[in-house]
Amino acid sequence: MDINPLNLIASSVFTILFLSSALLPTNSQQFSRKLSKEEMGIKRETLSHLHFYFHDIGSGSNPTAVHVAQAATTNSSSSLFGAASVIDDRLTEGPQISSKTVGRAQGMYIFADSTQVALSVLYNFVFTEGKFNGSVLSILGRNPMSSAVRELVIVGGSGVFRFARGYAEARTISMNMQTGDAMVEYNLYVFHH
Ligand SMILES: *[C@@H]1O[C@H](CO)[C@@H](O)[C@H](O)[C@H]1NC(C)=O
Ligand SMILES: *[C@@H]1O[C@H](CO)[C@@H](O)[C@H](O)[C@H]1NC(C)=O
User: Which keywords annotate this record (predicted)?
Assistant: First the structure.
């Protein structure tokens, strides 16, 4: 009998493949299918306006915005090009820091413009109030900080914000030039179901 080791390997590989394919479910697996809105329980589209204040605090012993990285050339850049911060900022109902928390902005911003101070942002706004409690809106966009109003894109969401889309307007209300701490007013206009 031929006991060439290569044959043994080939036959055991064949056996393993045969056995594992025999273990797979035999019914045909469907990659995609049409689904009705009713089946998903999707109701009529709602347009919501959310209004709150965003507190970006990098100073003090309990910062919610931390500078995590920068390029070797960032210090010599007037636009801080190459710097990156991670945030877990409070969102409040009113402008005072003592105002009721309605959620948090988690994510990051990077200084991504080499000629002016303009951030590229990536935020998940996670809400903690009322029917929005636990639901998230994901936001991307360009934030040129010297503009009075910056428009960001609501790219989607989870929870009550499944299938969400819309836009956000950001207005800086106050900024400490020494620390960079800022308070920003947000107005979100979002379609969801
Ligand atoms: C940039 O400036 C900061 C603060 O002055 C300093 O801590 C850091 O080492 C500098 N980085 C480089 C790459 O020069
Ligand atoms: C939000 O949901 C969390 C977790 O389910 C719960 O502990 C909390 O009390 C809720 N907050 C409000 C304001 O409903």
Answer: Apoplast, Secreted
